[in-house]
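Homework help thread (please don't just give me the answer)

Our assignment gives two proteins as sequence + structure token strings and asks us to describe the second one. The first is just a warm-up. Here they are:
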Amino acid sequence: MLQNRVNPFGQLIKTTARGAWLGNRGVIHNEDKEIVRAFKIKAWITCALEFRGRHREIMQPDRWTELFFLDEATAFSAGHRPCFQCRYRDHHRFKEFWLKGNPQYGFDMKTTVAKIDDILQAERITADKSKVTYQEKLKALPNGTFVIYDGKSHLLKDNQLYLWSPAGYLKGIRLPNVDIITVLTPRSIVNMFSAGYVPQIGIY
């Protein structure tokens, strides 16, 4: 079993559960298919599982490490964004709504996505490689946002919290009677959700 599944904290875990999306942080495994670093590049992307019939053997030597996500909301919480190549339309939708939700940076559609990656890098991981979190009013958060409740990651959707697990979400619970809560999803991504980007969520 390989350590290539990503949880909402951005951590890489081992599980037999399958993912709905593929991810890339560069070459982060060794020749024994063991994870040896958290990332190699700033462009953390989320890819389609299938693209133009291409097939990859998992964790080939000196090739980028294949990571997997339960859903797009989980990928965004970890700090990943849509790939420009295999998710061209989603990438442009991401950029459009990210700019709309984050006007404070003064970017426009001509701004390179590398500049957005710089901001995401600062929002997702600290110098000691721990997850960046922040405090926000629970009722101000949009659907698709991950928060920490009872020490675990929960997804916010339609005024309920859903406990994340590698195989899917547990039954939703009503929002707790708290004003402020710890947020896992990067701040600029939350702003993007508020601006109208609707992430794919594995709850139907």
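The one we have to describe:
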Amino acid sequence: MRTYTYTRIFFCTVLLSIMQACSSIFGLPSDPEKSTMGETTPSTTELKNLPLPKEKIVIGVYKFRDQTGQYKPSENGNNWSTAVPQGTTTILIKALEDSRWFIPIERENIANLLNERQIIRSTRQEYNKDADKNTQSLPPLLYAGILLEGGVISYDSNIMTGGLGARYFGIGASTQYRQDRITIYLRAVSTLNGEILKTVYTSKTILSTSVNGSFFRYIDTERLLEAEVGLTQNEPVQLAVTEAIEKAVKSLIVEGVRDKIWGKAAENTTDYQTLINEYNKEQDQNNGRAIGNRFPQNYRQKFAVFGNVEAQKVKDDYVNAKMNIGGKLGFKYFLNPNFNVEVNGSYFTLENENIIKRNYFGPEVNLEYLLLPKYRLTPYIYGGIGAMYSKYTPQYKGQFGGGLEYMIDHNVSLRASAQYDLGFKDDWEGLVNGKRKDQALRFALGINFYLGNK
């Protein structure tokens, strides 16, 4: 019994060692890390690479704060930690310094500065009573020609969530993601007359991902092997706020140059024309941006022709229905980006093995609805009426279906769909039996050709 216990302890120790080694392989932290310099963002590099002004602009920031008042979401009751960092004024001042366009002056804690200057004066007067008065005076404070106002005005949680997972014979894996979004508004105010010179608006998504894997299996009687591995990664909110503020500062600089509000600092806008052109191009692209940093476009044109390869299977009064291959050709006309009218003709075979087999030609008219017409991948649904012609009496039916369409080019798309045909009568094969009308199920793979230019 003691040997058995020692054996179990030994195997547990070995298993823990393997798990520790695996944690390093998967990039999981296992040792403390020393302090490092703060990370930089892509926008930091853009700020530092801006062309320099003719002269720097003295600028003041009294308050640039979190205006959302939002707390971190919690699944276990109240959480009184704020969702947004409270040092956004400091982040903004750092961004102004990195741009090399501005001379930021202390205004957030101006009372501390004035108090310290008063202490200096008092100390000099105390220990230099007989000195010349001119030696006791302090130089005047810089004053700002422009004030920056604004703040973090929105923190939206769970604007996009999703996941994917699968499990087979005790082996499984899953992944989940969540996107939040933070929004910044920044405005420049003239201290001369209080005019708001420029307002800019930027946003940044915050991504959280989770990947998990598990193994669960009985390897012997009363012996179970179970293993799990997982990794969760959350984008730091502070870095997201920093990047959004830096982007706002860059936008303020470029729009100020373009609209000539910086005066002598950028008198000759031709020196900054490349920068302005790049910014204008980015702004044009942003006009079509949707939530999730997606850029939908009008891929689909007014007209389209298509061809499908179909597999059909009848559901009628006989048994042993057999799957057969057929085809469909058609034409679409778009009433608007979402709706189109479709006219098609198909050739198909309905067969009950060793009982009956009939070939049909079937014209159809459908009304189709695309859920996401401006995206490459969109689901769609449709419905309509049709007919089935053969050497026997014509049959009439209704149909509905749906599927997915993916644009591989501006004029070409691939489609996968399923369609359900419902007969108005119960005599497709010439037999009436029971109350259920004859039906058919179709699966199709096809290609669409959109006519015209984007």
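TA reply:
I won't write it for you, but here's a hint about the kind of observation we're looking for: The two ends are 79 Å apart (CA to CA).
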